[in-house]
Amino acid sequence: MGPNPKMRKEFFDSTRSSPFPDEVLERVLSLLKSHKDRSAVSLVCKDWYNAESWSRAHVFIGNCYSVSPEIVARRFPRVKSVTLKGKPRFSDFNLVPENWGADVHPWLVVFAAKYPFLEELRLKRMAVSDESLEFLAINFPNFKVLSLLSCDGFSTDGLAAIATHCKNLTQLDIQENGIDDKSGSWLSCFPENFTSLEVLNFANLNTDVNFDALERLVSRCKSLKVLKASKSISLEHLQRLLVCAPQLIELGTGSLMPELTACQYAQLENAFNQLKNLSTLSGLWEASAPYLPLLYPACTNLTFLNLSYAFLQSHELESLLCQCPHLRRLWVLDTVGDKGLEAVGSNCPLLEELRVFPADPFDEEVIHGVTEAGLLAVSYGCRRLHYVLYFCRQMTNAAVATIVQNCPDFTHFRLCIMNPGQPDYLTNKPMDEAFGAVVRTCTKLQRLSVSGLLTDLTFEYIGQYAKNLETLSVAFAGSSDRGMQCMLEGCPKLRKLEIRDCPFGNAALLSGLEKYESMRSLWMSACNVTMNGCRLLAREMPRLNVEVMKDDGSDDSQADKVYVYRSVVGPRRDAPPCVLTLSEVDEASRCDGSPTNQNPSRYELPSWPHAPCRTGLRWAGFSSLRNLFVVNAWEHCVS
Amino acid sequence: MERSMAFESDLNLKATELRLGLPGSDEPEKPSTTPSVRSNKRASPEISEESRSKGSSCVSSKVESGERDSAPPAKEQVVGWPPIRSYRKNCLRAKKNDQVDGAGMYVKVSVDGAPYLRKIDLKVYKSYPELLETLENMFKLTIGEYSEKEGYNGSDFAPTYEDKDGDWMLVGDVPWDMFISSCKRLRIMKGSEARGLSC
């Protein structure tokens, strides 16, 4: 086929940068799924930007305050699916006040107008009320997929609204939320003619559900692939559900408490025998040894086994693992001990992900759980391991070095030595060399959580070697500002940095001035940062939101919790009184004496320098803030 | 650098001192910037014992004041640490309460000078010799034989237990069944104190 003269003309037409008609370009770009690729594509030229905008069906917003729903809707007119994340991750550990924000409702209001055909909504760490859930259920007739992870503010009434109104619902996935669990009757709200459900996960809930309604629902939804039940579902209930749904691919059992007759046991055995397609098994609350063999027939094709709520001993785990030759992901409690992990090493050659949770995290005195020996054993047997989350009470540098030598492909290495600041228990040295080995050996490392006794050397290593690191969590570590500086100056792909209880102060905070706009967010709590340092940051970087939360009874000049994130919409207007948003604008207006829209009285500095001082500092070379000397001058100026 | 020293002193280090306590509490804690103070020693058994004992005179306080100041209060938790989601914490807490009421008679065993406690299930043992053998294996020490008149004469270690009334008794003084039903926790004493008990 010869060249199309029209296309050649368009190619050379200087007013058009793309040789393709819009429709073709959009069609091609619509095949792109990764939002990172799409972002890259949208930067090529205006035509590509437009085409990409029109063809984007799914938008991912990692920080709900970085952008507004209006801006999103203006840029992406044809979105069908939205993923939205809200609170900082440390809110999972009660470090963020409950009324902090991240309310989904303003988003829903805009979506109702701009995306009336929205099909999917996935929320993580957002505040979601029953009113919002009802609003969602009523205003989006095509709504199909709702996923709520680590959200709070709603009750089972909200779920009832979803069940009642969403005629096309295919997925309802409620995980680890702070739900006000009023009653299980919400399940009865699914209409009798409703059959489209494919995913139902209500493992989060504690109250008894209306079992008959659940049974009818499961039997009429022939496409149901994922069923994760709550603790209230007994073994007898489970048997009846499995009989209705042998096609399940993912199953979360209810409670495995012993209460079956011999006949019932046989029936349940049969039911598990029918589950030929199971790839994920979870739940297993109150799992007791006699009932574990029931699961065996269903384990042949398992790739993900979640035993993180089952208090198993090592031999029980071993027997179960023998049945799962294809296991890729395993979550367990540390009751299985090092011996249980040896069994993992011996039986799971394809293992890629291991998470070991502590059964008794707050009992510091007693030795139990897992040690370095367990993870070592796993690393010898499971060479494909690339994701580990490991809670333990002792660790050594040598063990970690061997572990990463055995498994150099780690992308996620999250080690939690539970006693803060604990050294290598054999050598009594800091754990610096352990994490040095991790970052040196695991070149693909994307996520790292460090723990144990760590000096600045750890962070020198991280800054020097962790070139692909995107997420870093640091607690009770470091010796000086230099530690944080190394992280900020070194890791080119760093997006999320969360720090707590470390001796990093203003100089450290300010050394990242040029970095924060390329990151999603920074969290610092219980460090040595002061209000002045935060104000400086806010002043110098107007496109960052600098939010400070104060602890009761702490010194007025301390910035107890600092959350810094980039945003194209400026400071948020919905911050509660305990959250102070610092911004250049507010500071300037306060200097002039004009009122701001914050609640300033508690945080007013007694003597705020007037403009000449600031100007003086700018003259001194503000951009070289990393120089401690300059920061000193500033501190002397304002304190 | 002199300037940085001045900077540091202006910072009011007391206010910014890192602590392991809950915000607002005034407990003296170990400073995080001195690794030498930090040892891998947990709260010594004496500390937790002291907080629990009912003033029994049998237990002599072996706590050096330095040790006390450098170890955090035994049971105080740091907010949000270890980093476990609330949902999981609540599930595990419920389960733990179940376990306490369930089968098994778990008691804590401490050994003077050892940084960690162990837990054992007393129901597993049928007699004193069995129990003592297990303890000897577990902690790698020699307790020796019990005699009514001389206790564990000659041994550096003396196994003691706290009974329901809060009194500390020598293991072996009462019949096994009475021991099982009254033992709340075990402590293996060491050194001169232990030898003192054998008289």
UniProtKB/TrEMBL annotation, chain A:
GO terms for molecular function: auxin binding. It is found in: Nucleus. Keywords: Auxin signaling pathway, Developmental protein, Nucleus, Ubl conjugation pathway. InterPro entries: COI1_F-box (IPR041567), F-box-like_dom_sf (IPR036047), F-box_dom (IPR001810), Leu-rich_rpt (IPR001611), Leu-rich_rpt_Cys-con_subtyp (IPR006553), LRR_dom_sf (IPR032675), Transp_inhibit (IPR041101). Residues 20-61 form the F-box domain. One of its GO terms (cellular component) is SCF ubiquitin ligase complex. The keyword Nucleus applies. Its main location: nucleus. It comes from the Eukaryota. One of its GO terms (biological process) is pollen maturation. It holds the Pfam family Transp_inhibit. Pathway: Protein modification; protein ubiquitination. This is F-box domain-containing protein. It comes from Salix brachista.
TrEMBL record, chain B:
It comes from the Eukaryota. InterPro entries: AUX/IAA_dom, AUX_IAA, PB1-like. The keyword Chloroplast does not apply. Residues 1-79 are annotated as: Disordered. Pfam families: AUX_IAA. Keywords: Auxin signaling pathway, Nucleus, Repressor, Transcription, Transcription regulation. GO terms for cellular component: nucleus. One of its GO terms (biological process) is regulation of DNA-templated transcription. The keyword Phosphoprotein does not apply. Belongs to the Aux/IAA family. Residues 104-191 form the PB1 domain. It comes from Salix brachista. Residues 54-63 have a biased composition (Low complexity). Gene3D superfamilies: Phosphatidylinositol 3-kinase Catalytic Subunit, Chain A, domain 1. Homodimers and heterodimers. Aux/IAA proteins are short-lived transcriptional factors that function as repressors of early auxin response genes at low auxin concentrations. Repression is thought to result from the interaction with auxin response factors (ARFs), proteins that bind to the auxin-responsive promoter element (AuxRE). Formation of heterodimers with ARF proteins may alter their ability to modulate early auxin response genes expression. It is found in: Nucleus. SUPFAM superfamilies: CAD & PB1 domains. This is Auxin-responsive protein.
